[in-house]
Amino acid sequence: MKSAPRWPLHPAPREGEALSSWLNRVAACYQMDMLDLLEHDLGHGQADDLDTAPPLALLTMLSQRSGIELDRLRGMSVAGWVPWLLDSLDDRAPAALETYAFQFSVLLPKRKRKTRSITSWRAWLPGRSIHRACPLCLNNPTDQAVLLAWKLPLMLSCPLHGCWLESYWGVPGRFLGWENADASPRPANDAIATMDRRTWQALTLGYVELPRRRIHAGLWFRLLRTLLDELNTPLSHCGTCAGSIRYIWERCGHPLRAGQSLWHPYEILDPTIQLQMLEAAAIAIDLIESKVLSPRGEQAVLFLPEPLTGFTNGLPAVVQKTEPINHWQQAVKAIGDAIVEARHNPETARSLFALASYGRHDPESLERLRVTFVKEGIPPEFLSHYMPDGPFACLRQNDGLSDNF
Ligand SMILES: [Zn+2]
């Protein structure tokens, strides 16, 4: 086969840039429209598959035109991220969702989550096009590269500038407008910036440094997708973990499950809902890492700091010193954690009240305790089992208090 002549001008692709974005910038060098470049110079009549699965023949020709390696060009589309970001581009692959989003668990014990099954699904590929970009990255009108990751519901902020990605219209590099033209770049909070930096590390380096250990990019994307689904689990399925899920949403300032009442896979949700879900995932990770939450999912431990381990000095292990345990400090921390949980979980509130009221029998003392609990932010209705007119009422277990989660 005769090789195609080399383009005299072509900008170098930016790291993580989408194929369509790079072709737009190539076309701009010749004052051409990207579709015209595709059709008249490359013989490719459609543009909708460029960022998903560009045909090999097109990539081969682009490689000849630009001198850029085929693998690098392939990595500018989602197809180049299989099997790390997603298992397959085949949306009919059996049990794709179960395999991807239900084999791990972070916030909820594995048995708690109802496995969902749908016939047509691909991880992370949105139901409708996303037009979000970093206003600082696109600050220079002559060098406006759009990253592939910005076209997926995968990140909230720019990993390089730490500001929120913003909605735009038009074609970067040709004509571009911001939906909120007057807004200056908004810095993302630490929780969001940390999550997005890790996602960027996964995309560009193939691994992510978590507090406990370095994990493969494939595991990171699956953990993230697991979290997004756990946060979209109806509270009635969460049992005693319902309080934690509710707490995460409250910390975000968004309605529970981002206002969803019926379950749909993350990928087809409205983009505004997806952003709220991602924000909740970032907050959840932050709460786990700061030990405010201690979730029961198997993989939650990956977000905790490495426990202190003694180094070996060659002596038998029995004579090595171990770190003394401060039981009092641990107890104070456990009570602090229980108070946080009791603000959202009536069962914990009831148990904590029973513990705190141990040995108190007079109604006045119990009432003082109840007031203290309410001052700590525990809703009074969670303490409805406490009846001031009976000395042992606070210890009654079967009081009909229903847990309406
Ligand atoms: Zn940026």
Automatic annotation (TrEMBL):
Residues 8-165 form the TniQ domain. InterPro entries: TniQ. It holds the Pfam family TniQ. This is TniQ domain-containing protein.
